[in-house]
Structure formats: C-alpha cells, structure tokens
C-alpha cells in the first residue's frame, strides 16, 4: 500500500519551482536512517546553491520501488528529477535516464570502476554510486564468548553454533531466541541471500556472465536444501516475511544469535536504544565446503530522469551527494560503505568504522543483472519466488532448481 499511495501522490501532484531558481525532486531511500541522511544532505546542497530540493521517501521493498519508478517514468513529466536506483537497475531503467558523462564524467573516475562500468549502458553513464555495500554476518559477540565458540567460517559451523546457543539460552528462559535471521521475504533481498548460499557452495551465479543458466546443478541444490533444513530448527518461520528492517528489529531486540544484513545496521545496533548495543560483532559471511564465500554486491546509485526540466542542477545535486565529503560523513555516521576507494585509507574513517575493509579486499558476488539486462527483474522474481516456496515447505530443492531453470531459459529465449 505504501508504494501505491506514494505513486498516486507523485502522479497526481503538480510540482513547480520558483522561476528564479530550480526546484529539483529527489527520490530517497528509507531503510534505517537513510531518509533522514538523504534529506539533510539535499537541504545542505539547496542552501549552498539557492535551489530547492523536494525529497520523497520511497518504498523499502525494491520491487515496489521499481514499479513506482516505472509508473513515473512512463508518464514522462519529470516529476522525479533524481532517482535512487539499485545497483542492478541501470540496464533496466537506463533508457529513461540521461548520460551523466558530460556533467560528472571526471568525478566518475574517483569511484570503484567496476560499479561505474555496471552503471554504463550502451556507452552512457546512467548513474553515480551514492554508497556501496555487501552482505555481512552480524553476530552476538557476548553469546559466542559465553559458549566458547569462534566466529563461524563455514555455514555448517554457523548452524552448529547457532543450535548450541539457541538451546542453551532457551533452557535459561530466553524462549524467543533463534539461531539465525535473514531476509526471507519473497523479494530482491531473498535473491541476494540465496545467491550467497549457492555461490559459497560452488553452485554458480544462477546465470553466468556468458548467459548460461546454471542454477540446476548438484551444489546449488545442496546449498538450498541445507538452508531449507534450518527452517523451524535454527531459523524462525517468521523470516519468510522479513526484509532488512524486520531482520534488524529481531536481532536488535536480542532475539537472534546471527544475522545476515548490510553494513548500515551497525550504527543502529550500537545505538543507546538497542538491546544488544556493545555486544555485536561483524564478519564476512561463511563459506561452504566447496566454492568461495562472498557477500552479494549491493549499493544504490543516483541518476537523472530524461524528462527532468533541470538536468544540470539535478546532476550537480548528484555530484554533491556522491562527493568525497558526503560519502565520508555517511560512512562515519551511518556505516554506509563509500564507493570511493581512497576513503578506505582515510585515518578518520578507519578509526570510526574500523570493521570496513579496504574495498580492494572485499569479496563480492554479482547478481546477473548486466547479463540479463532488462529481463533482470523478471529473473530475480522467478528466483526469489521459488526459493521462498522452498523455505515455506511447498517444494523441494531439486524441484525448485528445475523450475527456476525452465523459467529462466524461457526468459533467455525471449528477452536477453
């Protein structure tokens, strides 16, 4: 309902700025303190330039956000000047975004070049990264210490430790504690989690860079079957409706030993309002017996609508929001990973956010968005829906892999 109500407001309103200065409209995220950060930074730019910025919080559900964007873009009225887009969307919405190279081509050289390449479609730079991140493992350091356990390096170690602590703590009266929480709702977040499980077990990337559909293989099936076996054991069935924030709420309330999430949660978990403040650790995600552990590459980018009446000012706003100064502040105050490699060597940032490794040392797994292009959203929806069915007990891992493979082969034949 949130996405629909926002969409209705956007499509019905007639925003108009002062003729003496530009009015730029900006779509902001709203996960954690993301919207407050976005709005404050935009207002700072407005105060410096004399322009006006209208900011709007977008749905946290990425599929709903994309649907909203498409509705606004289809209208072609420029009611949103600057879109905040997922790292997997440049090829999906690129036709509706201007080429930023004439405005920010030089600045783009200061960002991680793999992301700049990701954001370049048919030779045009469609977006500049506002921040980047990857999936991480958050854990209760106090509970691991209490039970004499190390931070798990493999998923099997995680399951064993989660089960031990869950049983021990429940025996002492904490009946709400579960071993692991993650993003299990049927949406893009589940795609990210399941890709990490499969890739870390040597099961591939769902679709490989050359376009080969590889989801239906023994290692991918084994990885999915393993996680399905955790449901009701160390994972609460409630995760089937969890996104990033519901996952954080459960962990922050003290109801989980381990959590898979993005780095933005670090600041919130250690706030005075958190029940686990000071007791949280963060580490790379575990691996499987085969394959290579890695977090799904995440992050959000800023692009300008082709229908914008103020493309110069909109691009200038993006330059400000993605500047070194703002990325450093965002990392220190809210744990958002910079997309500027030099910031990882900044002494002040290193002291404030010491868990962030140098970007050169990060291990990523990429979603197959570049390979599948405009079909990516359909690819992800097919994948997450079938994984959700598996975790819900409505199918088995082998059948899920076969079903996904068949659907993706059909999409491949018609769309990429």
Short description:
The protein contains 18 helices and twelve strands. With 416 residues, it is an alpha/beta fold. Strands 3, 6, 11 and 12 form a four-stranded mixed β-sheet that branches. A four-stranded mixed β-sheet has the order 8-9-7-10. Strands 1-2 form a two-stranded parallel ribbon.
Question: What are the main properties of this structure?
Answer:
12 strands; D-Maltodextrin-Binding Protein, domain 2; alpha/beta; 2 domains; disordered N terminus; 416 residues
Structure write-up:
With 416 residues, this protein is an alpha/beta fold. 45% of the residues lie in helices and 14% in strands. Strands 3, 6, 11 and 12 form a four-stranded mixed sheet that branches. Strands 8-9-7-10 form a four-stranded mixed sheet. Strands 1-2 form a two-stranded parallel ribbon. α2 links the parallel β1 and β2 (52-57). α10 (218-230) crosses α18.
What is the name of the CATH class of the largest domain? Alpha Beta
Order of H and E elements: HEHEHEHHHEEEEHHEHHHEHEEHHHEHHH
The beta-strand count equals: 12
* CA(first)-CA(last) distance: 32 Å
Main sheet specs: 4 strands, mixed
Beta-strand content = 5-15%
- Name the CATH superfamily assignment of the largest domain: Periplasmic binding protein-like II
Instruction: Give the helix tally.
Output: 18
The chain-level mean pLDDT equals 92
Using the 3D structure, state the CATH architecture of the largest domain: 3-Layer(aba) Sandwich
> Can you tell me the number of structural domains?
2
* Overall 3D shape: globular
Which structural category do the helix and sheet elements fall into? alpha/beta
Proportion of residues in helical segments: 40-55%
Output the radius of gyration.
21 Å
**What is the name of the CATH topology of the largest domain?**
D-Maltodextrin-Binding Protein, domain 2
